[in-house]
Fold this protein.
Amino acid sequence: MSVKIAVLVSGGGTNLQAMIDAWKAGNLQCGEIALVVSSSETAYALKRAEQNGIESVALTRSAYKTPEDYDKALLNVLLERGIELVVLAGYLRIIGAEVLEAYRGRIINIHPSLIPSFCGDGYYGLKVHEAALKYGVKVTGATVHYVSEVVDGGEILLQKAVPVEDGDTPETLQKRVMEQAEWLILPEATSILCGKIAREREMRV
Ligand code: GRF
């Protein structure tokens, strides 16, 4: 039986695309991308889901009174579909306590730096690469980590280093980090966890 994965997005969804490509190429072991959840109704990632016949749900924060209500709605969407693994791929909202509790050890996130550098509150999107260039590091990269209560603070699963080159702009660096690290290690970490979840399931039977 497959391991049902939900990919949570907010924007363009190139990491989602990398996940879909890995899945279609048979590289997610028993993983199946069963759902895409977007925090924005206009995210291009929703188009990618549609083009690939994947169910999608847009959950916008403004449709809910409190962050807790939003979190409950997200949890229901995940549980109703039997989701076992949650992958944050450019998802710009903080995961609330209820979802964290229900999916502890089964939510991962991709961050575009080598944690613990350039991470935590306020470090997202191009800001991460701006900070890396400002500091003058010669190597950066990407990290896949478990999601915990601490922003970008959960246990690290995989990391990959990428060189910074002379003349880099935040945009050129972002592109290199995506191409050489993010799009590789996010599907790889997902595949590893799918194998682990399937083995744990077998042991329970
Ligand atoms: C990626 O750089 C990811 O690491 C960060 O947000 C960006 C999302 O890009 N968390 P995309 O939507 O996957 O293209």
About this structure: The chain has six helices and seven strands. Residues 9, 11-15, 89-90, 110-112, 125, 178, 182 surround 5-O-phosphono-beta-D-ribofuranosylamine (CB under 6 Å).
